[in-house]
């Protein structure tokens, strides 16, 4: 199973960058307000995804994405 990097736009003011093996399930958790960080936002929008073969690759890319977004 592949790993996914994803970026959420939160209330048009900040971004959340995460990785997961189950993209659909993870996004659904965010939308149901079951994620500790994103539950405080009214609006969440998936704005970007990438796919990787390994967790290590996804972690490296997440760190790079966080430097670009934050």
Can you walk through the features of this model?
- The chain is α+β, with helices and mostly antiparallel strands.
- The N and C termini lie far apart (29 Å).
- Strands 2-1-3 form a three-stranded antiparallel β-sheet.
- It has a single domain (3-69), classed as GIY-YIG endonuclease.
- A hairpin with a 3-residue loop joins β1 and β2 (14-20).
- The longest helix has 15 residues, at 55-69.
- It has two helices and three strands.
- The mean pLDDT is 95.
Class per helix and strand makeup: alpha+beta
Secondary structure tally, helices = 2
The helix-strand sequence is EEHEH
CATH topology name, in short, is: GIY-YIG endonuclease
Helix content: 25-40%
**Largest sheet: number of strands, sense, barrel closure:** 3 strands, antiparallel
Task: Return the CATH class.
Answer: Alpha Beta
Q: Mind telling me which CATH architecture this is?
A: 3-Layer(aba) Sandwich
Give the arrangement of secondary structure elements:
Layout: E1 3-10, E2 14-20, H1 23-31, E3 44-52, H2 55-69
Antiparallel strand pairs: 1-2, 1-3
Descriptive keywords:
single chain, 70 residues, alpha+beta, GIY-YIG endonuclease, three-stranded antiparallel β-sheet
Brief synopsis:
The protein is built from 2 helices and 3 strands, in the order E-E-H-E-H.
């Amino acid at each position: 199973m592949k790993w996914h990097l994803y970026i959420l736009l939160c209330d048009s003011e900040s971004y959340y960058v995460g990785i997961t093996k189950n993209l659909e399930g993870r996004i659904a958790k965010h939308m149901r307000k079951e994620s500790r960080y994103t539950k405080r936002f009214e609006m969440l929008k998936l704005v970007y995804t990438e796919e990787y073969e390994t967790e290590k690759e996804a972690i490296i890319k997440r760190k790079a994405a966080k430097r670009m977004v934050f």
